[in-house]
Amino acid sequence: MASLDAAFHALADPTRRAVVSRLVRGPAPVKELAAPFAMGLPAFLKHLRVLETDGLIRSEKVGRVRTCWVNSDRLAAAEGWLSQQRALWQASADRLADYVELQMPRSMDDGG
Question: Does residue 7 carry a pLDDT above 80?
Fold first, then answer.
């Protein structure tokens, strides 16, 4: 569960979510990742550090270029938890809909 906490902590920030969204399409150098954001490189690197510390991304430096890529295992764990919660919620909504449908004809017959 600690890994899920870390993953959701990292995803709590819109800048970090945008970085993960970009990296889902493929690896990218830090310079490219930072370009869309109106912040200095040191501030952007703090976001990358959070993502890397919490395990959502990995990076490797070759020469002067640091390239990042998404850690699909960690992202899949977070997505799996969300899917599980969605399935439980959907099952409850379906049971409520079935109950309402069963009750509606009775209400109509009673004049209500």
Answer: yes
